Amino acid sequence: LHKAARNGTLNQVPRELLTKETLTIVSKPHYAPEGFYFTGSGYKAKTETVLHIAALYGHGDQIPAEFLTPDLLSIEAGGHAQTVLHYFALSKSLDLIPKIYDNSEMWNIKDRQGVTPRELQEAVIARGAYVAQVRTEPAMEKQKEKLRWFGYVFDENISKGAANDAIDDCVRKYPEKDRA
To answer: In the chain, how many H helices and how many E strands?
Structure first.
């Protein structure tokens, strides 16, 4: 179920297999046999449930509506103490949460950094807008030098974003030249 949630195929799982118990089961990786692991700070964190994974990877729309309730959306996981609702915020999909829960206390739950789900989504959106704006700026001379090193032909008016993408492509295609 965790793989289906991650890959966007949860909606292909037979409906009778999607229960509160199966959707809230935690993964048990080899390093966390009890479903818990210790973070660098020593905090004991619970691994993600199927609900966390579906929300994080942008497949929250595949979670049946009867499982989008405050008690299930408030399940905490990860070293940052984020809830399923926080994971929906990370994928900018809080709009999938039924409106009948707009005044629920779950919206006030804070993660380890003291951030609520709505604040987190606002920060994710703001960060995306900032990155998009920076990508449109003219490329730095250092980026152009690296592109020339790879022998990449480009317009001198190339943007930071396009230059970055081209550099990534060159590094992928010519790792030995990148190492040099």
So the answer is: 9, 4
